[in-house]
Amino acid sequence: MKSAYKSILWRNWKSFRLQWKSEIIWMIVEPALLIYVFGKGLSQWTGSLQGQDYFDFFSASILGQVSFIIALHEGLYGVRAKNVNSGVYNFWIHSGITAQQIFKGEMFWICCKAMLGVSICLFLLLFSQSYHLADYLWIYLICLLISISGGCVGIYLALRFKADLPNWFSIYLFPFLLVSGIFIPVQFFPLPISWFLEILPLAAGCDAIRAWTKSHELIWMIKPSILLVTFAAATYHFTQKKISQL
Amino acid sequence: MKIFEMRQFAIESDSKQIGPFSFEIRSGEIFGISDLSDVHLRLLTKFLNGENPVEKISGQVFCKDAEINPARLGRDLRISFLSQTVSFDPKLTCSENLFFQSCLKTEQASARAQVQEVLHSFELYSVADKYLQKLDLFSQKKFQLASAQIKNAALIVFAYPWTGLKLAQQKLLSQKIKNFAQQKSAVLIFSENHERIESVCDRILILDQGRYSIIGEPKKLKESSLGTQVIEIPLNVQEFDYFQKRIKEKNLKYFISDQSLCIFSKEGADLREHIQSFGFQQVTLRKTQLFDFFIQNKKDYKPELELA
Lengths: 246, 308
Known about the structure:
Shape of chain B: elongated
Radius of gyration of chain B: 22 Å
Order of helices and strands of chain A: HHHHHHHHHHH
Number of helices of chain A: 11
Structural class of chain B: alpha/beta
Mean pLDDT of chain B: 81
Largest interface: A-B, 20 and 21 residues
Helix content of chain A: over 70%
Radius of gyration of chain A: 18 Å
Number of helices of chain B: 11
Mean pLDDT of chain A: 85
Shape of chain A: globular
Largest sheet of chain B: 6 strands, mixed
Strand content of chain B: 25-35%
Oligomer: heterodimer
Distance between the termini of chain A: 19 Å
């Protein structure tokens, strides 16, 4: 039933247009500030990191971070608002849309929104980075996988913790970014911890983007890509099961 | 044609029991369920809409001869459950909400045409571009009916349709419900508004504190079990004991309402003889209402306490 997905996409786009002023904070303002302050600013005092200029290192991080944060926020707060606060899912279900269609429709919207954020970020990076067409394709593919992971985690948390968690979830977010290899490589952490951190979707995604943009060698991309695909598939599977409770 | 059926349906929750009762709704029929106790009726509607889980459920529910899960009545595509709290998307306007629903059924162009037609028939054209949460309750109820028309359901379950509406609006909404039943499908109404349910419904099921009481056409129910007329006599506590004895001797049905004694009288009965034999000075005669049936049927009614 394609019309269900189209209707969900149409509805979310309408809602996005109503509240675009608050949405651009995540899409434009925050990435622009991060690129300028941490990327441009810190690269003047830091040397190369893992054989890369710090700005190049951070550019890959910001692309992964934007897709993950947008997807996570839309999954967590967007789904909670629609499910608990305004009863939109109830309306959809009464209109004949199934829980599975809601999940797939929402995931499609989350990915579209995350890709829009990535595009804006790539546009901001145009002034200082030169990517080739193959780079763009790889970046979009990895960011898509990151946004699937982020969106699924967000939806799962929104359904699992209907009231409490989303209110103070932001407190966990910054430490999560610190340990996900956004600002420094996860290999900086002691060995057993760094092994665990490499599994995180954002860390694996950023590694995969960096591996391509740094060396263009397939061998370095295999491990993070496999980790990311596994994580995305697993979260997708579990969230799909969870949403059937709707 | 049989649209909907409940067979020996009963639920138990929070030590409240509702049912068992059985009934069926035919095509074009408006069926009402009412109870003297609003608590039981609300519990039943909430359960059927999937809002309240219950401890125990028995019996079967069918829609167009296919068995359905009674706890997910509102989610069945053949049924449109219109609950008291209007279910809609607050980010979309009235016409957009209808368009969203219509798009799920048809192509965009025909969906637009359908929305225009429905907006016109339910007189929602003037509020089409407004957000539903900003509309008055009457318009919201009309929107519910409009969305049910778009859904094209076989049965519409309308919980508390007249609650919060003015009398004139209640009448207009009743007319819309009647038109709906004639054109499209069957309607099941849950309401505590006895007067309105009596005038709108073809048949009713009356519950007494959740227990099955009686089922039938409102007019026939009143006439067969109570009579066509009610004699209202204003009394005080001392007089009541005297008259109660005499009423029981004559084997008449009666109840107490607003510090007056109400005696049921069948058509053709000699009213003058009744009134004269009791020696009443001042009486009021009126037609029997469904509300009288509820009061009369109330098992734990304490007239002495009520009068005191």
